[in-house]
């Protein structure tokens, strides 16, 4: 018998596919538009949300029986704000330049609809283990979309991945640039992120017709 039951496994896998928080629930889409011009920023934001949502879900689950209903939103905000401060301070200590790139968007994790939604919809009604799996699953679903969008935006917009040139030198016209290819500056603009997310949604619904709304 495995460590995870079938239901436990679905808590992780469903947000990666047919119940993705960005493409299906349409939550947390603002950061997908704002910080995905660089793959590194997309990855770090995904890791940050993974930590905040995974740990936050467990904390809220442990406290669920002692939180007065009238102040539960305030308590949830305090928990997520504390975790976000930890993430922000770690980034400033070990990746200062990246922390400046992400700037206010790390702080805005506090108001990320995915996190508050999982606190309210799942952690308040389930045990710590299931809440942890739910948090990890939804955070991974969020991170996967950010990484896909960041990959294409940086590659086609700057010709780099993680800041490393992969298509050649656009000035000396080496690599693919020798064929006349030019970086697409439009890829670095927020509207292009929305277009890529739209294409992901189209592919997802093409593969699973049940996701298409009447």
UniProtKB/TrEMBL annotation:
Keyword Translocase appears in the UniProt entry: yes
A Pfam short name: Rnf-Nqr
The enzyme's E.C. designation: 7.2.1.1
Reaction(s) catalysed (UniProt annotation): a ubiquinone + n Na(+)(in) + NADH + H(+) = a ubiquinol + n Na(+)(out) + NAD(+)
Role according to the record: NQR complex catalyzes the reduction of ubiquinone-1 to ubiquinol by two successive reactions, coupled with the transport of Na(+) ions from the cytoplasm to the periplasm. NqrA to NqrE are probably involved in the second step, the conversion of ubisemiquinone to ubiquinol.
Similarity comment text for this entry: Belongs to the NqrDE/RnfAE family.
HAMAP family: NqrD (MF_00428)
Quaternary organization: Composed of six subunits; NqrA, NqrB, NqrC, NqrD, NqrE and NqrF.
Name of the protein described by the UniProt record: Na(+)-translocating NADH-quinone reductase subunit D
Organism: Winogradskyella litorisediminis
